[in-house]
């Protein structure tokens, strides 16, 4: 049993009537205790079913937000610990905790269902104090605590937060971070808390120490503009799409009621529109409100600051209604909130459009790294497996996502079904089994989404060289591969069975994954998204079966698990044979032609080596036939340009990268994007807006800027002597009219960089910095190769084309 918070008891706030979801208040839970004058050290540990802020003697403890974070609460609940000795004093001390619904019982996901993990909020806290004699004094949650509703009259991560400052009594020395509750009672009496036991409360083994960086207020932005489109309304443009909240220091006279609506776009009247963020109920089609609405009622008291720390929003614009005459917007600030990840990658080049693309891709990731990797920071805020699967390799070039991803992978393994399938979102409110919601249960195990169980830890291994990641995740990898292989073998697609009514399937068909529900490529331009369980996505699913089985075999080989490696290798070979026999026609041609299928086939090594250049040439033809525009969706967009460039089509790769109009990456910039969109036509030429304007999956193209434009490349399947940048290939690929480019990475070994330019004579000049412990193989555009150990090196090549 875990010893974390062993002296504390679970307590629940007094809540005789539970408000409707999205309208539930935060509660204050409080206790007082006596201390002597010889406190030497003190440590406070806390966790909750919900979100907490802790205050000792009126001061906020720590700078972490959304504690205890989002995990698979039934199996993994994080305990946060803080040193608090400086906040204690001799004599009477007071501890207060604000507790709100958070992810535990708040509204969540596309359909915004509440009570996903339980119907009650609860607190578990222990304060350990060491006095001058070395004796330990423990103050812990238990029967002596009291509770009441707080000045936060509603708090929900999706719907927003409302605060009534009139419910607080002014205290000397109060600051914007102080809870400043009224300790004397008043109109809202205190009640004894309820002790909680049984079920999850009794399972202390699920209490874990956090492994990932916490969520914090990372940056504060001064608004780009404030407009007044109508009397009583101000619209704040924070300048870019972010995840976080708005901080206000002018709340108006007492009784002023401000309503803050957050969105990504403005309508024709200059007001915030949230129509593009409205989801719907799958079963009925009923459209849901967009949420993201905060409210604050002023007490007319100087020093009160509105900062809604029990919610976050995805937004660029905030419409503030109820603004009184004379309202001062000078102190308005946008607070950027996300996991406090260390930036590791930088890129720049001579084309400012690519610099801008890099910037909006980075901001899109920042907006979706809020304790878990989310798909979008506004409409559903869920940890979609497919999104992180396609982006994690790119994310590792931008930030240190090692611990962040390990936390999420632990939840993936916890929520994996007994038969090995992986839910579409992680953490999953339904846990490790069906939810009873038809579409959710149907989509669990979709190819390209469930494959995150294998592909995410593999990418972490490549970038970090941490073999323990593979060791921890190998059981989950194997369960997924076995599930996918058994699903492929279990049945044939009805259309295939009707077309080939032989007494027995073809020999390769047991490895052809043509059954079950799959999202497929998802959101290809011009292809309406129709989640159809009868659709045959076998060209996608079989490709992923091969890829995951192949990398699971490679992982097992690295770990010395020979039997597992052999089992997965057999599945990988079977799926490869099935894909080639079923879909390959003439050399380098496919029976089902799409840019996605060719890009994936090249990226996964599905085409025979002799056919790969022909396949890349056909891919380039398909792009040309599409007016020079890409045609990929979620799964293969990040694979498109490397598939071209690595097989003799570098010019086509650059043309596609630099294409404009719709669909294209630069087309988003042309329409003012500050983050990457869910749909290629997120904002149309006519101004029509559709879907989320902050989805990072299409920003996977940023990998190409590092790996090909600047040329910093890891082995696709590194061994123990190469992973984690122990061995690297520097092979820049000039093109697209670029005059220079550079990229740098803070690797586990130190700083690695590649910077190239053309001198006045047109000669190619490359400067490389290699960290200690790394060996670089340098390949120049003229075909010459060099070895480079640690240190700075300069290489030159003859005029290209001379």
Description:
The protein has 802 residues and is of the alpha+beta class. Among the domains are: 11-212, Galactose-binding domain-like (Jelly Rolls, Sandwich), CATH 2.60.120.260; 218-339, Sandwich (Jelly Rolls), CATH 2.60.120.260; 727-797, Maltose phosphorylase, domain 3 (Sandwich). Strand 4 and strand 5 (59-60) form a beta hairpin. The longest helix has 24 residues, at 467-490. It is globular and about 80 Å long. Residues 171-176 have low confidence and may be disordered. It holds the Pfam family Bac_rhamnosid.
Radius of gyration computed on alpha carbons: 28 Å
Q: Main beta sheet, described?
A: 10 strands, mixed
Spans of at least 5 consecutive residues with low confidence: 171-176
User: Number of helical segments?
Assistant: 16
Q: Please, what is the average pLDDT?
A: 95
Instruction: Output the CATH class name of the domain at 11-212.
Output: Mainly Beta
Silhouette:
globular
Approximately what portion of the residues adopt beta-strand conformation? 15-25%
Helical content band: 10-25%
Gross CATH architecture of the domain at 11-212: Sandwich
CATH topology of the domain at 11-212: Jelly Rolls
The secondary structure category is: alpha+beta
> How many β-strands, per DSSP?
37
Report the end-to-end length measured between terminal Cα atoms. 71 Å
Question: What name goes with the CATH superfamily of the domain at 11-212?
Answer: Galactose-binding domain-like
Domain Alpha-L-rhamnosidase six-hairpin glycosidase: 343-709
Domain Alpha-L-rhamnosidase concanavalin-like: 229-338
Catalytic activity: Hydrolysis of terminal non-reducing alpha-L-rhamnose residues in alpha-L-rhamnosides
Organism: Agromyces tardus
